[in-house]
Design goal:
This protein has 517 residues and is an alpha/beta fold. It folds into four domains: 188 residues, Rossmann fold (3-Layer(aba) Sandwich), CATH 3.40.50.620; 45 residues, Roll (SH3 type barrels); 54 residues, no CATH class; 75 residues, Arc Repressor Mutant, subunit A (Orthogonal Bundle). 45% of the residues lie in helices and 11% in strands. The protein has a five-stranded parallel sheet with strand order 3-2-1-9-10. It has a three-stranded antiparallel sheet with strand order 5-6-7, with no helix packed on it. Strand 9, helix 8 and strand 10 form a beta-alpha-beta unit. Helix 6 packs antiparallel against helix 8.
Length: 517
């Protein structure tokens, strides 16, 4: 396969080759809502979605199923959840109460915001809640079949274990009717639908799981069962699942040995790091960033660009430090290449970047949207103190449509969030309304001359920048001392945006402050 074919299209071709000609292809993703669903978790549904886009471009019908594994047990209490929630360990997460009392369950508290945020990014899968499927008996026949194949299943698992499973092992978890927990053991099965079980709470019973839907398959059996049930053609998995003897490799063995089918096409995805947030993500510690929090800094198209531009098997970091400025600059360049307002001699680069843009911006307006340069925008936003009217007035002559206006305000929103929450302290400023800084006599003379310089003529930025250095020399100040004095007058701090351009942007506000020296 040619290396000039973009990775999503390579993957789509592989799916077509391995799965054959089908009326509809199924791509799948799944997450257990055991705590805050962080941006790293998003890589799984996003990878499925990008493949869906590639297959659709090839004219294929595709559906994306996103499963919530909310019938999984509540395993441990995350750091941001009250300690008393330990009492719910062993229950399905769909039955654990919401500690914050704003959703119907612990699981729903994490599922619903994530679904809404996925939709903002253009990822709109068909949602499957596994608790609903299990509790309504959708999988009853699949469970019965898996139990009939327990000898085969035990053999597969024993090949990857140091100690073999006991002969009386059953691939089944039971949620006790009395305590709702899975501290249970199946002791007998009639080869139809009836099982005997006992629970650590002291309860024991004989139930027909066709009538009482309180059982589920263990994860390593449940996963291939659902591939079979939903006719899944593709599903990615994190690298922790892809090791030899891991859940994906045993799932593949089970799919072939038990269901006599080929497993879905697989793709390993790497972890996602965070840069500039002050720590590594950890769900158990509670210091993770959700998709919604990332969208507070990244426009949906720019976030899609980060994922589309990185092969799933490649680890990458999402930046929240000054690299954010560069990410937006790169995205804007890709957009210009797509619309032909910037040229490149590298045809492979043009092809790949155009493909990235197609995957990044499903809207693809007829003409290039107005690009408010991100670094410059952060300066303007602070100058107008995040006032929407002031911002629109500044950019008025450059906005040619309502779409441009909407696009500018969307970018301004995330830029302001970044300034307030992640930008370095010396990046932030507030233009003074009156002079408060103390200056030496030498600095005062330099600032008075700067005032005179600005009122003499209309300057171009490069010319003014040169004059500033000359003015510093005239007053026996180093350029660092001169610039620091200027910023103290304008911002009451010793650093700020590039001075020449900043003075021109401020206009009368700058001259009025300098006049007070």
């Amino acid at each position: 396969m040619s290396d000039t074919v973009f990775w999503t299209d390579q993957l789509a071709q592989k799916v077509l080759e391995l799965r054959g000609n089908k009326k509809e292809y199924v791509v799948a993703s799944r997450i257990t809502p055991s705590g805050t669903i962080h941006i790293g978790n998003f890589r799984e549904p996003m990878t499925a979605h990008l493949l869906l886009c590639a297959l659709k471009k090839m004219g294929r019908q595709v559906v994306h199923y996103h499963s919530w594994d909310d019938y999984d047990r509540f395993r441990k209490v995350p750091a941001n959840v009250p300690e008393e929630w330990e009492q719910y360990i062993g229950m399905p997460v769909s039955k654990v109460p919401d500690p914050w009392e704003c959703h119907k369950s612990y699981a729903a508290h994490f599922e619903e915001p994530f679904e809404a945020d996925m939709n903002k990014v253009g990822v709109v899968p068909k949602i499957i809640r596994e608790s609903e499927r299990y509790e309504t008996g959708v999988y009853t026949e699949d469970i019965k079949f898996a139990l009939s194949q327990r000898t085969v299943l035990r053999g597969i698992f024993d090949n990857h274990r140091s100690e073999p499973l006991p002969e009386e092992w059953f691939p089944l978890q039971v949620y006790c009717e009395k305590c709702n927990r899975d501290f249970t053991k199946v002791s007998n099965y009639d080869e139809e639908y009836t099982i005997d079980y006992t629970c650590k709470c002291g309860h024991s019973d004989t139930i027909n799981f066709k009538e009482k839907h309180i059982v589920k398959l263990p994860w390593r059996v449940d996963w291939p069962m659902r591939w079979h049930h939903d006719s899944v053609d593709f599903e990615a998995a994190g690298k922790e699942h892809m090791t030899k003897g891991g859940s994906r490799s045993t799932g593949n063995e089970i799919m072939r040995a038990v269901w006599k089918e080929e497993p879905p096409v697989e793709k390993k995805y790497e972890f996602i790091g965070l840069k500039g947030t002050g720590g590594k993500m950890s769900g158990s510690k509670g210091n993770v960033l959700s998709l919604g929090e990332v969208l507070e800094v990244y426009q949906p198209a720019v976030l899609r660009y980060l994922f589309a531009g990185s092969r799933p098997e490649t680890e990458f970091s999402i930046s929240f430090d000054l690299d954010v400025l560069q990410v937006y600059e790169y995205f804007d360049q890709v957009e210009r290449l797509y619309y032909g307002t910037e040229e490149s001699q590298n045809q492979k680069e043009i092809h790949n970047k155009k493909r990235i843009y197609e995957l990044s911006n499903p809207e693809k307006p007829g003409k290039q949207p107005y690009q408010a340069a991100y670094r410059h925008l952060t300066t303007i936003l602070q100058m107008v103190e995040n006032d929407e009217a002031g911002l629109l007035k500044y950019y008025d002559k450059e906005l040619s449509s309502d779409y441009d206006k909407k696009h500018l305000l969307e970018r301004a929103h995330v830029a302001w969030n970044w300034i307030q929450n992640y930008s370095p302290e010396d990046f932030r400023f507030s233009v003074q309304k009156e002079l408060v800084a103390s200056l030496s006599d030498q600095e005062k003379k330099a600032m008075r001359d700067l005032h005179l310089l600005l009122t003499q003529q209309i300057w171009k930025e490069d010319d003014l920048a040169q004059e500033l250095y000359e003015l510093a020399k005239k007053h026996d100040l180093s350029s660092k001392e001169f610039f620091a004095a200027s910023y103290k007058v304008l911002l009451n701090k010793e650093k700020g945006p590039r001075l020449a351009g900043f003075l021109l942007l401020l206009g009368e506000r700058a001259t009025n402050l300098l006049k007070q020296v």
